[in-house]
Amino acid sequence: MTSRPPGFGSTVGETPPAAGGWREGDPNGRRRWFRGALPGLPFRIAYETWGTPAADRSNAVLVLHALTGDSHVAGPAEPGHPTPGWWDGLVGPGRALDPARWFIVAPNVLGGCQGTTGPWATAPDGRPWGARFPRLTVRDQVAAEVQLADALGIDAWAAVLGGSMGGMRALEWAVSEPDRVRALLVLAAPAASTAENIALASAQLHAIRLDPVRGLGVARRIAHVSYRSEPELDARFGRAVQDDGRFAVESYLDHHADKLVRRFDPASYVTLTEAMNSHDVGRGRGGVRAALRRVTARTVVAGIDSDRLYPLRRQAEIADAVPGAGDLRVVTSPHGHDAFLIEVDQVSKLVDDVLGTG
Ligand SMILES: CC(=O)SCCNC(=O)CCNC(=O)[C@H](O)C(C)(C)COP(=O)(O)OP(=O)(O)OC[C@H]1O[C@@H](n2cnc3c(N)ncnc32)[C@H](O)[C@@H]1OP(=O)(O)O
Ligand SMILES: N[C@@H](CCO)C(=O)O
User: Fold this and answer.
1) Lesser CB count within 10 Å: N end or C end of the chain?
2) What secondary structure does DSSP assign to 309-330, as a single string?
3) Model confidence over 70-81: pLDDT tens digits?
4) Is there a catalytic annotation at residue 224?
5) How much is the ipTM here?
6) What biological function has been recorded for the protein in this entry (predicted)?
7) Where does ligand 1 bind, in terms of residues with CB under 6 Å?
8) H helix or E strand, kind and range, residue 291
Protein backbone atom coordinates (compact mmCIF):
# COMPACT_ATOMS: atom_id res chain seq x y z
CA MET A 1 0.00 0.00 0.00
CA THR A 2 1.49 3.36 -0.96
CA SER A 3 0.30 6.93 -0.82
CA ARG A 4 -0.47 8.59 -4.10
CA PRO A 5 2.11 10.61 -5.98
CA PRO A 6 1.69 14.38 -5.66
CA GLY A 7 -1.00 15.72 -7.92
CA PHE A 8 -2.57 12.33 -8.44
CA GLY A 9 -6.27 12.41 -8.99
CA SER A 10 -6.78 16.12 -8.57
CA THR A 11 -10.29 15.70 -9.87
CA VAL A 12 -10.87 12.18 -8.62
CA GLY A 13 -12.56 11.29 -5.41
CA GLU A 14 -14.14 14.64 -4.71
CA THR A 15 -17.50 13.63 -6.10
CA PRO A 16 -20.18 12.61 -3.64
CA PRO A 17 -21.26 9.00 -3.84
CA ALA A 18 -23.83 8.52 -6.58
CA ALA A 19 -27.39 8.62 -5.35
CA GLY A 20 -28.81 5.23 -4.62
CA GLY A 21 -25.44 3.62 -4.00
CA TRP A 22 -25.58 0.51 -1.90
CA ARG A 23 -23.09 1.84 0.61
CA GLU A 24 -24.87 1.88 3.91
CA GLY A 25 -27.65 -0.04 5.54
CA ASP A 26 -28.60 -3.66 5.25
CA PRO A 27 -31.31 -3.75 2.59
CA ASN A 28 -31.51 -7.51 2.27
CA GLY A 29 -31.03 -8.33 5.93
CA ARG A 30 -27.98 -10.45 5.18
CA ARG A 31 -25.19 -7.92 4.88
CA ARG A 32 -22.67 -7.84 7.71
CA TRP A 33 -19.59 -5.74 8.40
CA PHE A 34 -16.17 -6.63 9.63
CA ARG A 35 -13.73 -3.99 10.90
CA GLY A 36 -10.00 -4.43 10.41
CA ALA A 37 -6.91 -2.40 9.68
CA LEU A 38 -3.96 -2.34 7.32
CA PRO A 39 -1.06 0.03 7.97
CA GLY A 40 -2.53 3.53 7.63
CA LEU A 41 -5.93 2.24 6.58
CA PRO A 42 -8.59 1.26 9.09
CA PHE A 43 -11.30 -0.41 7.04
CA ARG A 44 -14.56 -2.22 7.13
CA ILE A 45 -15.59 -5.00 4.79
CA ALA A 46 -19.23 -5.55 3.87
CA TYR A 47 -20.02 -9.18 3.20
CA GLU A 48 -22.94 -11.50 2.66
CA THR A 49 -23.24 -15.15 3.54
CA TRP A 50 -25.46 -18.02 2.52
CA GLY A 51 -25.78 -21.29 4.41
CA THR A 52 -24.55 -22.32 7.83
CA PRO A 53 -20.94 -22.78 8.90
CA ALA A 54 -20.00 -26.28 10.06
CA ALA A 55 -18.66 -26.39 13.62
CA ASP A 56 -15.13 -26.74 12.24
CA ARG A 57 -15.84 -24.28 9.41
CA SER A 58 -14.77 -26.93 6.90
CA ASN A 59 -17.59 -26.04 4.50
CA ALA A 60 -16.66 -22.39 3.96
CA VAL A 61 -16.40 -21.17 0.37
CA LEU A 62 -15.09 -17.73 -0.51
CA VAL A 63 -16.63 -16.14 -3.61
CA LEU A 64 -14.81 -13.11 -5.00
CA HIS A 65 -16.41 -10.60 -7.33
CA ALA A 66 -15.09 -8.77 -10.36
CA LEU A 67 -14.51 -5.06 -10.95
CA THR A 68 -18.01 -3.71 -10.59
CA GLY A 69 -19.53 -6.58 -8.66
CA ASP A 70 -20.11 -6.70 -4.93
CA SER A 71 -21.22 -8.98 -2.12
CA HIS A 72 -24.60 -9.58 -3.75
CA VAL A 73 -23.74 -12.88 -5.43
CA ALA A 74 -27.30 -14.12 -5.38
CA GLY A 75 -30.76 -12.69 -4.95
CA PRO A 76 -32.97 -10.24 -6.79
CA ALA A 77 -32.37 -6.58 -7.57
CA GLU A 78 -33.26 -4.54 -4.53
CA PRO A 79 -33.79 -0.94 -3.53
CA GLY A 80 -30.37 0.65 -3.88
CA HIS A 81 -29.00 -2.39 -5.72
CA PRO A 82 -30.32 -2.26 -9.27
CA THR A 83 -28.82 -5.53 -10.53
CA PRO A 84 -29.68 -9.06 -9.41
CA GLY A 85 -26.97 -11.24 -7.92
CA TRP A 86 -24.11 -11.59 -10.37
CA TRP A 87 -23.93 -15.40 -9.97
CA ASP A 88 -27.57 -15.81 -9.03
CA GLY A 89 -27.86 -19.02 -11.05
CA LEU A 90 -25.06 -20.66 -9.10
CA VAL A 91 -26.44 -20.27 -5.59
CA GLY A 92 -29.48 -22.07 -4.23
CA PRO A 93 -30.96 -25.49 -3.48
CA GLY A 94 -29.64 -28.06 -5.94
CA ARG A 95 -27.29 -25.54 -7.53
CA ALA A 96 -23.49 -25.63 -7.64
CA LEU A 97 -23.30 -23.56 -4.46
CA ASP A 98 -26.03 -25.12 -2.36
CA PRO A 99 -26.45 -23.31 0.97
CA ALA A 100 -27.65 -26.57 2.51
CA ARG A 101 -24.10 -27.84 2.19
CA TRP A 102 -21.79 -24.85 1.88
CA PHE A 103 -21.22 -21.74 3.96
CA ILE A 104 -20.73 -19.18 1.21
CA VAL A 105 -18.97 -15.92 2.06
CA ALA A 106 -18.85 -13.00 -0.38
CA PRO A 107 -17.05 -9.80 0.63
CA ASN A 108 -17.13 -6.50 -1.22
CA VAL A 109 -13.52 -5.81 -2.19
CA LEU A 110 -11.32 -3.36 -0.28
CA GLY A 111 -11.43 -0.07 -2.19
CA GLY A 112 -14.91 -0.83 -3.51
CA CYS A 113 -18.04 1.23 -3.10
CA GLN A 114 -20.73 -1.20 -2.05
CA GLY A 115 -20.32 -1.20 1.70
CA THR A 116 -16.58 -1.78 2.04
CA THR A 117 -14.15 1.06 2.72
CA GLY A 118 -13.03 2.90 -0.39
CA PRO A 119 -12.24 6.46 -1.45
CA TRP A 120 -15.89 7.38 -0.92
CA ALA A 121 -15.61 6.63 2.83
CA THR A 122 -14.68 8.88 5.72
CA ALA A 123 -11.00 8.92 6.67
CA PRO A 124 -9.87 8.85 10.32
CA ASP A 125 -9.59 12.67 10.25
CA GLY A 126 -13.34 12.92 9.66
CA ARG A 127 -13.08 14.06 6.03
CA PRO A 128 -13.80 11.88 2.99
CA TRP A 129 -10.76 9.95 1.84
CA GLY A 130 -11.26 11.10 -1.76
CA ALA A 131 -8.03 11.40 -3.68
CA ARG A 132 -6.03 10.79 -0.49
CA PHE A 133 -7.16 7.17 -0.40
CA PRO A 134 -4.06 4.96 -0.47
CA ARG A 135 -3.11 3.14 -3.62
CA LEU A 136 -3.98 -0.52 -3.12
CA THR A 137 -2.61 -3.71 -4.59
CA VAL A 138 -4.43 -6.99 -5.04
CA ARG A 139 -2.20 -8.24 -2.23
CA ASP A 140 -3.56 -5.53 0.11
CA GLN A 141 -7.09 -6.56 -0.83
CA VAL A 142 -6.37 -10.19 -0.04
CA ALA A 143 -4.64 -9.20 3.21
CA ALA A 144 -7.90 -7.53 4.25
CA GLU A 145 -9.87 -10.64 3.30
CA VAL A 146 -7.48 -12.76 5.38
CA GLN A 147 -8.46 -10.66 8.39
CA LEU A 148 -12.11 -11.32 7.59
CA ALA A 149 -11.41 -15.08 7.44
CA ASP A 150 -9.66 -14.88 10.81
CA ALA A 151 -12.65 -13.07 12.30
CA LEU A 152 -15.03 -15.71 10.96
CA GLY A 153 -12.86 -18.48 12.42
CA ILE A 154 -12.09 -19.94 9.00
CA ASP A 155 -8.63 -21.50 9.09
CA ALA A 156 -8.90 -22.86 5.56
CA TRP A 157 -11.46 -22.32 2.83
CA ALA A 158 -12.99 -25.42 1.28
CA ALA A 159 -12.68 -23.41 -1.92
CA VAL A 160 -11.89 -19.92 -3.14
CA LEU A 161 -13.68 -19.02 -6.37
CA GLY A 162 -13.29 -15.96 -8.53
CA GLY A 163 -13.71 -14.66 -12.06
CA SER A 164 -11.90 -11.74 -13.66
CA MET A 165 -10.70 -9.39 -10.90
CA GLY A 166 -12.12 -11.95 -8.46
CA GLY A 167 -9.94 -14.57 -10.11
CA MET A 168 -6.89 -12.37 -9.49
CA ARG A 169 -7.70 -12.29 -5.80
CA ALA A 170 -8.48 -16.01 -5.72
CA LEU A 171 -5.08 -16.75 -7.25
CA GLU A 172 -3.34 -14.35 -4.90
CA TRP A 173 -5.04 -16.09 -1.94
CA ALA A 174 -3.73 -19.47 -3.11
CA VAL A 175 -0.20 -18.13 -3.64
CA SER A 176 0.13 -16.05 -0.48
CA GLU A 177 -1.90 -18.32 1.85
CA PRO A 178 -1.51 -21.81 0.39
CA ASP A 179 -2.38 -23.55 3.67
CA ARG A 180 -5.71 -21.73 3.82
CA VAL A 181 -7.04 -22.62 0.35
CA ARG A 182 -7.99 -26.26 -0.16
CA ALA A 183 -9.50 -25.81 -3.62
CA LEU A 184 -9.27 -22.99 -6.14
CA LEU A 185 -11.15 -21.83 -9.21
CA VAL A 186 -9.44 -19.19 -11.31
CA LEU A 187 -11.78 -18.16 -14.11
CA ALA A 188 -10.99 -15.68 -16.90
CA ALA A 189 -8.12 -14.07 -15.00
CA PRO A 190 -4.37 -13.70 -15.60
CA ALA A 191 -1.38 -14.36 -13.33
CA ALA A 192 -0.30 -10.80 -14.04
CA SER A 193 -1.92 -7.87 -15.80
CA THR A 194 -0.36 -7.45 -19.22
CA ALA A 195 0.81 -4.40 -21.13
CA GLU A 196 -2.46 -4.40 -23.04
CA ASN A 197 -4.53 -4.61 -19.86
CA ILE A 198 -2.61 -1.67 -18.40
CA ALA A 199 -2.90 0.26 -21.66
CA LEU A 200 -6.67 -0.13 -21.79
CA ALA A 201 -6.87 0.80 -18.12
CA SER A 202 -4.71 3.84 -18.72
CA ALA A 203 -7.19 5.30 -21.21
CA GLN A 204 -9.99 4.69 -18.71
CA LEU A 205 -8.10 6.32 -15.85
CA HIS A 206 -7.34 9.38 -17.96
CA ALA A 207 -11.01 9.77 -18.82
CA ILE A 208 -12.04 9.65 -15.16
CA ARG A 209 -9.33 12.09 -14.09
CA LEU A 210 -10.59 14.60 -16.68
CA ASP A 211 -14.17 14.36 -15.44
CA PRO A 212 -15.04 11.76 -12.81
CA VAL A 213 -18.68 11.23 -13.69
CA ARG A 214 -18.64 11.54 -17.49
CA GLY A 215 -15.22 9.90 -17.46
CA LEU A 216 -16.60 6.87 -15.66
CA GLY A 217 -19.10 6.51 -18.50
CA VAL A 218 -16.29 6.70 -21.06
CA ALA A 219 -14.26 4.19 -19.06
CA ARG A 220 -17.18 1.79 -19.02
CA ARG A 221 -17.61 2.09 -22.78
CA ILE A 222 -13.93 1.30 -23.38
CA ALA A 223 -14.00 -1.54 -20.89
CA HIS A 224 -17.28 -3.00 -22.09
CA VAL A 225 -15.97 -3.44 -25.63
CA SER A 226 -13.15 -5.49 -24.12
CA TYR A 227 -15.69 -7.56 -22.18
CA ARG A 228 -17.48 -8.73 -25.33
CA SER A 229 -16.21 -10.36 -28.52
CA GLU A 230 -15.83 -8.75 -31.93
CA PRO A 231 -17.97 -11.39 -33.70
CA GLU A 232 -20.69 -10.98 -31.09
CA LEU A 233 -20.84 -7.20 -31.49
CA ASP A 234 -20.87 -7.63 -35.26
CA ALA A 235 -23.64 -10.23 -35.19
CA ARG A 236 -25.78 -8.35 -32.68
CA PHE A 237 -25.42 -4.80 -33.92
CA GLY A 238 -23.62 -4.75 -37.24
CA ARG A 239 -23.95 -1.27 -38.72
CA ALA A 240 -27.55 -0.80 -37.64
CA VAL A 241 -28.58 2.78 -36.94
CA GLN A 242 -31.40 3.67 -34.56
CA ASP A 243 -34.13 6.25 -35.12
CA ASP A 244 -32.19 8.70 -32.93
CA GLY A 245 -29.22 8.51 -35.33
CA ARG A 246 -26.92 6.58 -33.05
CA PHE A 247 -25.37 3.34 -34.17
CA ALA A 248 -27.10 0.58 -32.23
CA VAL A 249 -23.77 -0.44 -30.74
CA GLU A 250 -23.20 3.15 -29.58
CA SER A 251 -26.58 3.12 -27.93
CA TYR A 252 -25.74 -0.21 -26.28
CA LEU A 253 -22.53 1.22 -24.83
CA ASP A 254 -24.34 4.40 -23.77
CA HIS A 255 -26.80 2.22 -21.89
CA HIS A 256 -24.10 0.30 -20.03
CA ALA A 257 -22.26 3.55 -19.27
CA ASP A 258 -25.40 5.18 -17.87
CA LYS A 259 -26.15 2.16 -15.72
CA LEU A 260 -22.68 2.09 -14.21
CA VAL A 261 -22.52 5.82 -13.55
CA ARG A 262 -25.74 5.51 -11.58
CA ARG A 263 -24.43 2.73 -9.36
CA PHE A 264 -20.66 3.09 -9.06
CA ASP A 265 -18.21 5.55 -7.57
CA PRO A 266 -15.59 6.91 -10.02
CA ALA A 267 -12.88 7.06 -7.36
CA SER A 268 -13.49 3.42 -6.44
CA TYR A 269 -13.25 2.55 -10.12
CA VAL A 270 -9.83 4.23 -10.18
CA THR A 271 -8.67 2.48 -7.02
CA LEU A 272 -9.77 -0.94 -8.24
CA THR A 273 -8.36 -0.42 -11.73
CA GLU A 274 -4.99 0.57 -10.30
CA ALA A 275 -5.11 -2.49 -8.04
CA MET A 276 -5.69 -4.68 -11.11
CA ASN A 277 -2.75 -2.98 -12.83
CA SER A 278 -0.62 -3.94 -9.80
CA HIS A 279 -1.58 -7.59 -10.17
CA ASP A 280 1.46 -9.81 -10.66
CA VAL A 281 1.61 -12.90 -8.48
CA GLY A 282 5.29 -13.22 -9.34
CA ARG A 283 6.40 -9.81 -8.05
CA GLY A 284 9.10 -10.27 -5.41
CA ARG A 285 8.59 -14.04 -5.57
CA GLY A 286 11.01 -15.01 -8.31
CA GLY A 287 8.54 -14.58 -11.15
CA VAL A 288 5.15 -15.96 -12.05
CA ARG A 289 6.12 -19.62 -12.46
CA ALA A 290 7.94 -19.73 -9.14
CA ALA A 291 5.01 -18.06 -7.39
CA LEU A 292 2.47 -20.43 -8.91
CA ARG A 293 4.47 -23.41 -7.70
CA ARG A 294 3.55 -22.37 -4.13
CA VAL A 295 -0.10 -23.28 -4.73
CA THR A 296 -1.17 -26.46 -2.95
CA ALA A 297 -4.92 -26.16 -3.58
CA ARG A 298 -6.77 -28.60 -5.82
CA THR A 299 -6.98 -26.18 -8.72
CA VAL A 300 -9.21 -25.67 -11.72
CA VAL A 301 -8.13 -22.99 -14.16
CA ALA A 302 -10.62 -21.95 -16.82
CA GLY A 303 -10.79 -19.40 -19.57
CA ILE A 304 -13.26 -18.34 -22.22
CA ASP A 305 -12.54 -19.09 -25.86
CA SER A 306 -13.73 -15.65 -27.03
CA ASP A 307 -12.15 -13.58 -24.22
CA ARG A 308 -9.98 -10.84 -25.69
CA LEU A 309 -9.28 -9.13 -22.35
CA TYR A 310 -7.62 -12.14 -20.73
CA PRO A 311 -7.13 -14.55 -23.65
CA LEU A 312 -6.83 -18.29 -23.06
CA ARG A 313 -3.05 -18.27 -23.14
CA ARG A 314 -3.12 -16.22 -19.92
CA GLN A 315 -4.96 -19.02 -18.14
CA ALA A 316 -2.90 -21.72 -19.90
CA GLU A 317 0.15 -20.17 -18.26
CA ILE A 318 -1.47 -20.63 -14.84
CA ALA A 319 -2.69 -24.18 -15.50
CA ASP A 320 0.76 -25.09 -16.73
CA ALA A 321 2.59 -23.87 -13.63
CA VAL A 322 0.25 -24.70 -10.73
CA PRO A 323 1.14 -28.18 -9.46
CA GLY A 324 -1.57 -30.69 -10.35
CA ALA A 325 -3.85 -28.15 -11.99
CA GLY A 326 -4.40 -30.39 -14.98
CA ASP A 327 -5.50 -29.15 -18.34
CA LEU A 328 -6.89 -25.71 -18.90
CA ARG A 329 -10.68 -25.79 -18.97
CA VAL A 330 -12.36 -23.83 -21.73
CA VAL A 331 -15.75 -22.15 -21.51
CA THR A 332 -17.23 -21.98 -24.99
CA SER A 333 -19.14 -18.78 -25.60
CA PRO A 334 -19.68 -16.05 -28.17
CA HIS A 335 -19.90 -13.45 -25.40
CA GLY A 336 -16.23 -12.82 -24.66
CA HIS A 337 -14.91 -12.06 -21.17
CA ASP A 338 -18.40 -11.45 -19.73
CA ALA A 339 -19.15 -15.14 -20.33
CA PHE A 340 -17.93 -15.78 -16.78
CA LEU A 341 -21.15 -14.04 -15.71
CA ILE A 342 -23.38 -15.36 -18.49
CA GLU A 343 -22.53 -19.03 -19.11
CA VAL A 344 -24.04 -20.27 -15.87
CA ASP A 345 -24.28 -23.95 -16.83
CA GLN A 346 -20.63 -24.19 -17.84
CA VAL A 347 -19.46 -22.23 -14.81
CA SER A 348 -21.61 -24.43 -12.55
CA LYS A 349 -19.83 -27.47 -13.91
CA LEU A 350 -16.47 -25.89 -13.10
CA VAL A 351 -17.62 -25.13 -9.56
CA ASP A 352 -18.90 -28.71 -9.18
CA ASP A 353 -15.49 -29.99 -10.21
CA VAL A 354 -13.64 -27.67 -7.84
CA LEU A 355 -15.86 -28.64 -4.94
CA GLY A 356 -15.76 -32.33 -5.85
CA THR A 357 -19.53 -32.47 -6.14
CA GLY A 358 -19.74 -33.07 -9.90
C1 LIG B 1 -18.83 -8.92 -11.77
C2 LIG B 1 -20.04 -8.38 -11.64
O3 LIG B 1 -20.57 -9.12 -11.27
S4 LIG B 1 -20.68 -6.94 -12.00
C5 LIG B 1 -22.39 -6.98 -11.72
C6 LIG B 1 -23.10 -7.47 -12.93
N7 LIG B 1 -22.46 -6.96 -14.03
C8 LIG B 1 -22.84 -5.84 -14.59
O9 LIG B 1 -23.82 -5.20 -14.27
C10 LIG B 1 -21.93 -5.41 -15.58
C11 LIG B 1 -22.61 -4.77 -16.70
N12 LIG B 1 -23.38 -5.70 -17.49
C13 LIG B 1 -22.81 -6.65 -18.10
O14 LIG B 1 -21.60 -6.76 -18.08
C15 LIG B 1 -23.73 -7.58 -18.85
O16 LIG B 1 -24.93 -6.93 -19.04
C17 LIG B 1 -23.97 -8.88 -18.14
C18 LIG B 1 -22.71 -9.67 -18.22
C19 LIG B 1 -24.36 -8.71 -16.69
C20 LIG B 1 -25.12 -9.60 -18.82
O21 LIG B 1 -24.85 -9.73 -20.19
P22 LIG B 1 -26.03 -9.92 -21.24
O23 LIG B 1 -27.13 -10.68 -20.64
O24 LIG B 1 -25.40 -10.42 -22.47
O25 LIG B 1 -26.55 -8.44 -21.40
P26 LIG B 1 -26.12 -7.34 -22.49
O27 LIG B 1 -24.70 -6.99 -22.37
O28 LIG B 1 -26.62 -7.74 -23.81
O29 LIG B 1 -26.92 -6.06 -22.00
C30 LIG B 1 -28.31 -6.06 -21.95
C31 LIG B 1 -28.78 -4.64 -21.74
O32 LIG B 1 -28.40 -3.86 -22.88
C33 LIG B 1 -29.55 -3.21 -23.37
N34 LIG B 1 -29.41 -3.03 -24.81
C35 LIG B 1 -29.27 -3.98 -25.75
N36 LIG B 1 -29.18 -3.39 -26.96
C37 LIG B 1 -29.25 -2.05 -26.77
C38 LIG B 1 -29.23 -0.93 -27.64
N39 LIG B 1 -29.06 -1.04 -28.94
N40 LIG B 1 -29.34 0.29 -27.07
C41 LIG B 1 -29.48 0.45 -25.73
N42 LIG B 1 -29.51 -0.60 -24.88
C43 LIG B 1 -29.41 -1.83 -25.39
C44 LIG B 1 -30.70 -4.13 -23.00
O45 LIG B 1 -31.92 -3.43 -23.01
C46 LIG B 1 -30.29 -4.58 -21.62
O47 LIG B 1 -30.60 -3.57 -20.70
P48 LIG B 1 -30.78 -3.91 -19.12
O49 LIG B 1 -29.54 -4.66 -18.70
O50 LIG B 1 -30.86 -2.56 -18.48
O51 LIG B 1 -32.00 -4.74 -18.99
N1 LIG C 1 -18.85 -7.03 -16.33
C2 LIG C 1 -17.79 -7.30 -15.41
C3 LIG C 1 -16.55 -7.32 -16.20
C4 LIG C 1 -15.27 -7.16 -15.47
O5 LIG C 1 -14.79 -8.40 -15.21
C6 LIG C 1 -17.78 -6.27 -14.31
O7 LIG C 1 -18.36 -5.23 -14.52
O8 LIG C 1 -17.26 -6.50 -13.25
Assistant:
1) C
2) SS-HHHHHHHHHHSTT--SPEE
3) 999 999 887 767
4) no
5) 0.93
6) Transfers an acetyl group from acetyl-CoA to L-homoserine, forming acetyl-L-homoserine.
7) 65-66, 68-69, 83, 86, 227, 248, 251-252, 255-256, 259, 335, 338, 341-342
8) helix 288-292
